[in-house]
Amino acid sequence: MAVNTDVIGKTYPATTYAVGREKVREYAHAVGETNPLYLDVEAARAAGHEDVVAPPMFAVVYSFPAVMPVFFDREVGIDFSRLVHGGQEFTWGPLVVAGDEIATTLTVADISSRGRNSYYVFETTSTNQRGETVCVGRWTNIVRGG
Asked: Whole-prediction pTM value?
């Protein structure tokens, strides 16, 4: 199936995620984190943070809502029934803490074909309420050929 490379560079509207203290704690517990900075407000404040700190991979929680629209964009043309996760890469900036409001935008970074498979690479940029880039993510997705 031919891929539509004309959509490379397309950017989607930002989604905003309000980082909640209990969500950070729930995530930390779910992934087995025991660092008190992720769980204990007083420990986080004693270390100089305003509230509990989100573990680095919490980036998936606040950025994934921005990823969803591209999967269902007819112009991009992903066959969701053949989609597999290819990989993720993140570059982090300032720490994210409970109380932050994170806005994430997604851009179609690349689309290519190799053999019968199609590769879709998306880049997310997440910024906090102070305009600081807290995370840049690259999401690689593979659509298996039929």
From this structure: 0.92
